[in-house]
Specification:
Elements: E1 5-6, E2 14-20, H1 32-47, E3 52-55, H2 59-71, E4 79-82, H3 92-95, E5 98-102, E6 109-115, H4 118-121, H5 126-129, H6 131-136, E7 144-152, E8 159-160, E9 165-169, H7 170-176, H8 182-193, E10 197-201, E11 219-222, E12 226-230, H9 240-252, E13 262-266, E14 272-274, E15 277-279, E16 287-289, E17 292-297, H10 302-313, E18 318-323, H11 325-328, E19 339-342
Parallel strand pairs: 2-3, 3-4, 6-7, 9-10, 12-13, 17-18
Antiparallel strand pairs: 1-5, 2-19, 5-6, 8-9, 11-12, 14-15, 16-17
Amino acid sequence: MTDAFRFPAEWEPQSAVLIAWPHADTDWGPRLAEVEDTYVALVAAITRFQPVVICAADDDLQIYAEARLRSNRVDMQRVRFVASVEYDDTWLRDSGPITLAGRDGEARFKLLDFRFTGWGGKFEASRDDRLVGELSSMKLFHNYFAQTIDFALEGGAIETDGAGTLLTTWRCLHERHPEASREQLSTRLAAWLKQDRVLWLDHGYLEGDDTDAHIDTLARFAPGDAIVFQACDDPQDAHYAELAAMADDIAALRTRDDQPYTLYPLPWAKPVIDEGRRLAASYANYLIINGAVLIPAYGDAADDAAAAVLARAYPDREIVQVPCRSLIWQNGSLHCITMQLPQGLLA
């Protein structure tokens, strides 16, 4: 790992969290009021600890979002808007910048702009695919350069420990690049993301997830060579066998020192059925920020138990529940709508 840049872990210091405000022309339109409530709660939670940068499609949307946040007594000193930004939807984990930081500790950055294809062409994504370039032209960042990479990859598909190990799923990467072998994909990911090894999970999925098994819905690195993962303890559930096999995959992984990872299985929420379809209610889709971990809450009895697991995995951080039942209606959750910006990146 001799490159001048590295891929920091999510628990490292951040400048801000980047989000995009929902509006009627996104897929949130039919349930916009419910989703706005979640965004207000999310911004309120983030600004307790650090700044948030909010993309708005136009000036009117910015004025409206500001009014909603002020009426909920959000700390507006920690809110920064970027107006007149075009986006098809608000899943910035997948359309936003993947940021590498200077290895020597200097505040210099490389923004990786991979192709965003709407999760393998499932949805229109042309404006989302231009988002990183658009943000780069707005003097939002400093001491950086952007690198455009002609390769389909979403931020939710990759997880790093900040020390050179990448975790991902074969199902997702193979779906995006069926012509490539695992060895070829490992080589490319390691080169672009400055990793020296790539770990793969062969099992794991959530019904209602249209990302083809993004890792951030299934398993996440935690400090101290640990992995937090979504478990299923209901033998009657359709996910039971697959998530048990995933748990075996994770248990077989080894750290750089050839030791097993410390494992933190998350509890399983009861099925959430909406208009006849099951929604992907994963607790693994949490967001790490400065001093806290924000965990999605679904109004389920397992919410508190999941928060308790994260309290053990992140003992030095406050665990904050954010209501996210409205988000899973569109097949994603808390981590999916956010992208952290490393400390020093924000101008």
